[in-house]
Amino acid sequence: MLTTKRITGSESPWFAEVDALYETAFPLHEKREPDSKVSVLENDRYNLLAWLDGEQFVGMTGSWDFDGYSYIEHFAVNSALRSQGYGKRVLGEFLQRQPLTILEIDPLTSDIAHKRLRFYQSLGFRQNGYPHFHPSYHQGIDDHALIVLSYPQAIDDVQYQHFNQHLGQVVMAK
Known about the structure:
By secondary structure, this protein is of the alpha+beta class. The chain has five helices and nine strands; from the N terminus they run βααβββαβαββββα.
């Protein structure tokens, strides 16, 4: 079984390792500004977790708890451990703790995007057909289109509207 360490500030023991993975795993338009990355840790709804197998750092999740669902804002596996089943293990354990989980993936414009969709579908995620744009993390960079996935079932219009409202007003609050 994997264990987790919650990161509550930049002085937390696993922050540097999680932050290094975050910086290499996501493109600029999918990352928070440096100050925002630290200040979001003060929000009680936000959970930045280091995932460990024994003492080995295997990955990270940055997620939000809302009434009735969780939203995974960021998920990444240590690049040295990819293709070893850790992604499925981390998400499998995450999903056991959460009743309904929502996340976003890139539009299906590349082989990698299709592979990512198949990965999430293999875990039970469902694709939702809502036209969706994630708000920009940076001034001067446009909002970006993403596909909304949910587990264990598709979400209805009311659930999507709540998620989109939380995304704009809580997750992206400066």
